Amino acid sequence: MIRSSLKNFAKNLVYLFIPMGIFYLFLLLTVFGLAHFLIGGLSTMLSDLTSLIHVSVEDSSVSVNEFLKYAFGQIEWTGNYAAAIRQIFSTAWLKNTAMGFLETLNASTENFGENFSAIVLKFKDTLVAGVSVAAVICAIGVVLANFAARFAIRRKTARRNFKKFFLAHTVVPIVQAIILIAFYILFAFIRFYSLLALVVLLALSAVLSLTASWVVHSDKTVKLKEVLTLKNILSYLGSVGLIILLDLALAAALFAFDALIAALLMVPIVIYSFCIADVNTDAFVCSLVEKNAAPAAA
Questions:
Q1: For the chain, does the N or the C end have fewer beta carbons within 10 angstroms?
Q2: Is the pLDDT assigned to residue 71 strictly greater than 80?
Q3: What is this structure's pTM?
């Protein structure tokens, strides 16, 4: 399995464009969706704040006028006008004036602070909802990219057993994610829990991958215990380890060039890489099937 990892990685490299295309499409949808929530929420917040401040200023015009006189009275208008303009646009004056203006409204207008906070919190809730939707869209893109890459790489076998293939190669990644979260929570109060959860996840990933390949390709000629052996599990982990090292080396090279490009390229590359790791288990189970079928044919 370890030896075939590099061979399969290079042989099927053209299929890297499949997870790239799907992931980038959903990433684009994610960006536009997040921008929609952000712009819409920001527009609503600014509109509500403008209305609130307008009404509050009318209710407390005397206090506001006195504060503005005080704020602009801090500026030296005589002599150098360029210095006065620089003082107006300085960060400290703008910040102090804005904060003082809001404090004046809060002190002179009933429930201004509560209404102001409610508007800001509403925008925060909108932004959180937008981020949540964007995360779901992005996650769907990763799952679809993962399945499409697996299907393309093992297209001949998948076409012959599409139902089993679909179940095995959509359920397994979801189960792996659930197991990772479950063990992360389980070991949350144990020192080095992250490393322990990772080790458990990798071991279970090997079992799940071999079992999924057995479900799809065994054709009832190979027993599960022939597939789930310690040697096969270690071989799977070895191939995953090799792929992780390759991905880390590539990520380091890309990161040295540009961090954003590295992030955009590495996600589909990682998806493709782990598809190759699981494809190796498919090939192994298929070889067992052919080996068991040969004596029967003879």
A1: C
A2: no
A3: 0.63
